[in-house]
Amino acid sequence: MRTAHQTEPGLLRHPVAKGYLVHSVTAFGAVCGMFGLIAVADGEPKEAIVWLVVAMVLDGIDGLGARRWSVRENVPRIDGNTLDLIVDFVTCVVIPVLFLHRFHMLPEGWSLYIGAFVLFMSALWMSRTDQMTDDHFFHGFPCEWNMIVPTLYLLDSPKWFTTVACVLLALTQLTNWKFMHPMQVRHWRPINITVTVAWLAIVLLMTADLPGHEEAGDYILVACPMYIVGLGVWRTLRGSSAIDPHASALPSVPA
Questions:
Q1: Are residues 166 and 146 in the same domain?
Q2: How far is residue 23 from each of residues 19, 51, 77, 185, measured CA to CA in Å?
Q3: What whole-number distance in Å separates Cα of residue 80 and Cα of residue 94?
Q4: 3-state secondary structure of 75
């Protein structure tokens, strides 16, 4: 019987090749970021959201490949965590902040100040040495502005609500308030992934329907962020034992 290793294409049987493939997937997120920036500059919110979603999907699968193929050991000359943070700062922070400003989602006269505050706090969070707990919850809001901003845009949220949401989330970034990692938290993982995939799907569907607005989709749009925040609140108030009694035995890995 042929093993899984034997069924892989010839090039991907080499661990170094696998490592560079994973790093290439991560780095391609920067290319998605470039197209996302161009879309924002050109006043194309639909295209910008699509590129943010593509970058989010790449960010979700590269970590799985990195852990499965031991990329850190096989390609030690490239720091995957640093590469991931560089790409994430563009796709998860810079583009969403520009999106907020370009498409007038914040009160007139306050857009640049609020955007600057979000950038400032997110830069500090990206530099934290304690970003994640042993059971894979983030300390503070993990710069998932690429999830929050499209959601608020598609919901056509009032400017005051968008302002409050951005400021409050940014203020948590130097705290130990917990936020769930959808792919790595072991507790209820199938539900976590299902909710996230459902959110991605409805974002794409509602983006394609713009400038139309299907109110039924609003419930799914709200459900995913609320589920993530809600589980984080529970984890914060109850501690790691509320989620996984064996959490202390879990290794901490980069997002």
A1: yes
A2: 6, 19, 11, 23
A3: 20
A4: coil
Residue 131 shares a structural domain with residue 197: yes
Residues 81 and 108 in one domain: no
Range of 207's domain? 104-248
Q: Is the dihedral of CA 225, 185, 198, 61 positive or negative?
A: positive
CA distance 105 to 97: 10
How many structural domains is the chain composed of?
A: 2
Query: What pTM value is reported for the model?
Result: 0.85
> Cis link prior to 211 (omega < 30° from 0)?
yes
φ, ψ (nearest 5 deg) of residue 105:
-90, -10
pLDDT by 10s per residue, the chain, length 255:
444 455 555 556 778 888 888 888 899 999 999 999 999 999 999 999 999 999 999 988 887 776 777 778 888 888 888 999 999 999 999 999 999 999 999 999 999 999 999 999 999 999 999 999 988 899 999 999 999 999 999 999 999 999 999 999 999 999 999 998 888 888 788 898 899 999 999 999 999 999 988 888 898 899 888 898 898 999 999 886 555 544 433 333 344
Element (H, E) at 114: helix 111-126
> What is the residue type of 235?
R
**Are residues 20 and 130 located together in one domain of the fold?**
no
**Lookup: tokens for 32:** 């998605």
